[in-house]
Amino acid sequence: MEVVIVDTPTDAVPIVADAYSKLLTEKPDAILGLATGSTPLGVYKELIRRHKEQGLSFAQARSFNLDEYVGLPEGHPEAYATFIRREFTDQVDFRPGAVKGPNGLAEDLLQAAIDYDNEIVDSGGIDLQILGIGSDGHIAFNEPMSSLGSRTRLKTLTEQTRADNARFFDSIDGVPRLCLTQGIGTIMEARHIVMLGFGENKADAVHACIEGPIMAKWPASALQLHPHTTVVVDEAAASRLEEHDYYKTTWSKKPDWQSI
Ligand code: F6R
Question: Where are the alpha helices (DSSP H) in 93-146?
Fold first, then answer.
């Protein structure tokens, strides 16, 4: 696991955007794993800028969202399918139908989850998966105690996650209780994972998941077993890391030619 500590979230943007540019240059038909939430927004804005000003193209790429609330009506502004289109994919040149997400309105939610997982596998697998981290260490909506081998499935959100996400809704009552989420086992099959964490309220989770034991209580700790994960955190989120200075030195000495 490579840990990159930057001063501010803005400093993370070019590092992560460069990974997309490199991948799409080498493999224009790459499969991208997309996260919603506030953390990746700066990266998406930069990718949109590179598309408009530098011709970075997503025309042959496909994408899979990590998760979706259950029961939000089609087009609801906080449905993750709507969010990702508004904040990113509609502003670049993905082909119609190339942007996928779990169907939180399916009549048979359990089957919809299985079908979505199979679709990811059948696509050849995700080349680059971007993740945020929850303040309780969740990735996608795999809350604490999720199986580290789990596949896409129906989950219940914790009250902490509902409270964290209430800022996007009129009140916590509007935040759904159920979701469909890629499992930790599904996420772990991505070839390169980039997990971002910004702000002091992520510091405990970042510390536990990077430097603590691998355990279901801290879902992102599973990433310690992944062969190519890059964690990019700002100083606030890194404030509890015991090996802080080592991560800084390693990054500063990294050869220019080596990307994340
Ligand atoms: C979003 C997702 C969540 C968020 C996490 C952090 O698709 O799966 O795991 O990445 O809750 O949310 P923010 O970025 O809003 O702090």
Answer: 109-122
Q: Which atom of ligand 1 is nearest to the CA of 80?
A: 7
- 222 secondary structure, DSSP code: G
- Three-state DSSP at 41 gives helix
- List the structure tokens of 43: 């990266």
74-130 pLDDT, tens per residue?
Answer: 999 999 999 999 999 999 999 999 999 999 999 999 999 999 999 999 999 999 999
Domain ranges of the chain: 2-192+199-240
Pocket of ligand 1 (CB under 6 A): 35-39, 66-67, 80, 132, 134, 138-141
Instruction: Report the nearest-CA residue for atom 2 of ligand 1.
Output: 140
Active site residues: 67, 136, 138, 143
Closest residue by CA, ligand 1 atom 4: 132
In CATH terms, is domain 2-192+199-240 a member of 3.40.50.2300?
A: no
Contact between residue 76 and residue 82 where contact means Cβ atoms under 8 Å apart: yes
Residue nearest to atom 5 of ligand 1 (CA): 134
- Condensed to tens digits (0 to 9), the pLDDT of residues 134-170 reads 999 999 999 999 999 999 999 999 998 999 899 999 9
Q: Residue 26 Cα, ligand 1 centroid: separation in angstroms? A: 28
Q: Could you tell me which of 90, 177, 171, 84 has the C-alpha nearest to residue 132?
A: 84
